[in-house]
Design brief:
alpha+beta, five-stranded mixed beta sheet, single chain, about 45% helix, Beta Polymerase, domain 2, about 725 residues, Hypothetical protein af1432
């Protein structure tokens, strides 16, 4: 036994294969450190066993072997893998490990422990959220790679677990970890996770496909040799350096294809693929791959629909290869994959290959971009220095938290306990008084972090308040609080109005309700009657003061006429000092009257209402004369902004035409197809050979309406077209 291994309190058969791999890869100093870490982990986990009775440390050793040999990571990843269970079980403080073996190990171990605390629920509708949560914990890219190695080791030893655990881990591996491995280009790990998962989830189907593959193995091998003989002879003549691989389709892939296409095993024609892997400089890869494609198609006929050129344009996850499917004279289809040694290394080992870092532009990354950047970063980066090179952090726009029963919820970053309550249910948010985060009582203002377990505390007497809008960050919570506040304001306004009407009647004052409201809004500098009613209901305005103000108004003791003070936009140099109507105005409350539906180009005026701010009417509005006669002091001159209106207005035209075949289609085509105008609704009825009705259209000005009328009148059979009030 070597000097470095003397302190390892463990039977050599458990750790010897791992140390052989480590010694073949690491230098003497690193190898000595790995031995020291292994001895430490074995000591801390002493006496603990797995389900099959083997020492618990064996899981860490086997995982570390995968980390080194199959994923291709280095010193810090190996140390962190060996010590993961020691830290997870709180048998050693992580910061002591950092001071002893380096701070990089601290970050990796913390990420691994965070992921270990995640317990995905068997629910397809939440699997994407769980995947994003796992990625969010992997601020150091090595974390997710070690976790994949950890899961692969568990799956290889899955038979030792109880049936319920086997099913759960198989489901997680298939739906969660295999998907992550695929996105990282770790195809071997992906396929193995899928096959083992299928073995335990669909045992009968797995055994059937496995047996059929075994039964046909010798025949396949003989066919492949005969198929490749002319191709290899031609490549040798051209002096091409190459080697061959044949890959049988994974059992899971075959099973999935059989299910998806509803076919039997014998109908899966692409059971295997042949890889031709060339050894050449990178700058010659593309030309040589296409050269081999030419050789292959000299002997066999390709299917153009099955051609895949991932050399010119690689897949988003970095995969490069040239695929074609050819048919033999006997009618048997064969898939050929042509690639270089470099491409094959990336395809086989993903992150262990020589990956390329292209740089990160500013801003955070979403989950998909994070995976892509992780692949890109490693093409020319040694895996031991990943942390220094990888500065692409996952987008800080999301936080993932759990309900007490394990449901995962995705919220925006900065979300509070109150946000979480509204996310669960509106009623829960309305009555929230606080919460328990990770079994600790907190205020509903508490900001949540990834992985928090949150329970909401409620009270029947709790009601939302306006300052809650300063606490929440999610749009759902803000909208619910605003809706509640509006509802409460409406209730208060109704009570306030009833109170004011009753008092004016009791006081026997000779003043209309409208004039009373205008006087009081002017006096208290309020914008709308609704505000006035609300303040009366909340007793912010004393009724005795109202009586005094109205009495002084009736006795002409108030200084000015009752005109409500509003914020309006005036023409900078307009002689008429008119209200300018433009969607860009933000300091004015107005709306377009429904009785006449004004649009840009109409002559308009403003009318100050009691409850709804300023309403814009057309001069020829049916109500215009009445408004001017009864409330002249509430009329405001108004005009459209000179440079035109933004957006679309609704206009209605009445059409009268002969009821002939296709008339409705002709009218619709002129408006919609020829004039490119959106028809919001059309209601045409036939009576006595005459087709008549209304068409609602979206326009930008009166000129467009006039153009529509002119165009419709040109249709043969159209009798009358004119604009109407709505």
């Amino acid at each position: 036994m070597e000097e470095n291994e003397r302190e390892i309190d463990l039977a050599p058969e458990y750790y010897r294969p791992f140390l052989d791999v480590a010694q073949s890869i690491f230098d003497a100093e690193t190898y000595g450190t790995v031995c020291e870490v292994l001895a430490l982990a074995a000591d801390r986990l002493k006496g603990m066993t797995r389900h099959d009775g083997t020492p618990f440390i064996v899981h860490s050793i086997n995982t570390a072997t995968i980390v080194i040999r199959e994923v291709g990571l280095g010193r810090n990843s190996t140390i962190s893998t060996l010590l993961h269970d020691v830290v997870r079980l709180q048998l050693m403080d992580v910061h002591r490990i950092g001071s002893r073996f380096g701070e990089q190990c601290v970050g990796i171990l913390q990420g691994l422990c965070n992921i270990s605390d995640v317990d995905p629920k068997v629910a397809h509708d939440q699997i994407d959220n769980f995947r994003e949560l796992i990625v969010s914990y992997s601020t150091d890219p090595r974390v997710i790679l070690i976790k994949l190695a950890d899961r692969l080791e568990v799956m290889r030893a899955l038979d030792m677990f109880p049936a319920e655990k086997r099913a759960k881990k198989a489901w997680e591996s298939l739906n969660l970890y295999a998907q992550i491995a695929h996105k990282l280009g770790l195809y071997n790990i992906k396929s193995e996770l899928e096959d083992i998962a299928l073995k335990h989830l669909e045992t009968k189907d797995y055994n059937y496909i496995s047996k059929r593959l075994a039964d046909s193995a010798s025949e396949r091998e003989e066919f492949i040799r005969a198929f490749l003989r002319p191709i290899e002879e031609k490549m040798r003549q051209h002096g091409i350096r190459y080697h061959l691989k044949s890959r049988t389709k994974s059992i899971y892939s075959i099973w999935r294809k059989m299910k998806r296409m509803r076919i039997g095993f014998d109908e899966v024609y692409d059971l295997f693929a042949i890889r031709i892997i060339i050894d050449c400089p990178q700058e010659q890869e593309k030309a040589q791959c296409w050269g081999i494609y030419s050789i292959v198609t000299d002997f066999y006929t390709p299917n153009p629909e099955r051609m895949r050129d991932w050399i010119s344009i690689p897949k988003s996850n970095g995969y490069e290869s040239l695929h074609t499917t050819v048919v033999t004279e006997a009618g048997r289809w064969v898939e050929i994959q042509i690639r270089s040694e470099r491409m094959d290394e990336i395809a086989e080992r993903g992150v262990a290959a020589h990956w390329r870092y292209k740089g990160i532009k500013g801003g955070g990354l979403g989950t998909e971009e994070w995976f892509t950047k992780l692949r890109e970063i490693m093409e020319t980066t040694q895996t031991q220095s990943l942390a220094e090179k990888f500065d692409a952090k996952l987008s800080s726009g999301e936080v993932f938290v759990f309900t007490p029963n394990g449901d995962l919820r995705k919220l925006t970053e900065g979300a509070t306990v109150l946000d979480f309550a509204f996310d669960i249910h509106s009623n829960l948010g309305m009555s929230c008084v606080g919460g328990r985060v990770n079994h600790r009582n907190v205020s509903f203002r508490e900001t949540l972090k990834n992985g928090d377990i949150v329970e909401i505390l409620t009270s029947k007497s709790q009601r939302p308040k306006a300052d809650w809008l300063n606490i929440v960050t999610t749009s759902k919570a803000r909208n619910k609080i605003k809706a509640y506040m509006r509802e409460e304001q409406a209730k208060a306004a109704s009570l306030g109005r009833e109170e004011l009407e009753r008092k004016i009647k009791n006081w026997k004052l000779p003043v209309t309700m409208d004039d009373a409201v205008m006087v009081l809004c002017k006096y208290y500098k309020l914008k709308t009657g609704t505000e006035l009613y609300g303040q009366i209901a909340q007793q912010k305005i004393v009724l005795a003061d109202i009586k005094d103000i109205l009495t002084r108004f009736l006795n002409d003791e108030l200084d000015e006429r009752p005109v409500r003070e509003v914020a309006v936009s005036k023409a900078a140099a307009g002689p008429d000092d008119a209200l300018i109507i433009d969607e860009s105005l933000s300091n004015i409350e107005y709306k377009l009257a429904k009785c006449c539906n004004p649009i840009f180009g109409d002559e308009i005026f403003g009318f100050t209402t009691i409850n709804s701010g300023i309403t814009i009417h057309r001069h020829d509005c049916p109500n215009a004369l009445r408004l001017r006669e009864r409330y002249p002091y509430r009329i405001l001159p108004a005009r459209w902004q000179n440079d035109g209106a933004k957006g679309a207005f609704r206009a209605t035209v009445r059409v009268q035409a002969d009821d002939t075949t296709g008339m409705v289609n002709k009218i619709a085509e002129v408006i919609n197809r020829d004039m490119k105008i959106n028809i919001r609704s059309m209601s045409l009825n036939s009576s006595g050979g005459v087709l008549a009705g209304l068409i609602n259209i979206e326009v930008t000005s009166t000129q467009v309406v006039e153009a529509v009328i002119h165009s419709l009148m040109r249709i043969k059979g159209v009798q009358r077209v004119f604009r109407v009030n709505n």
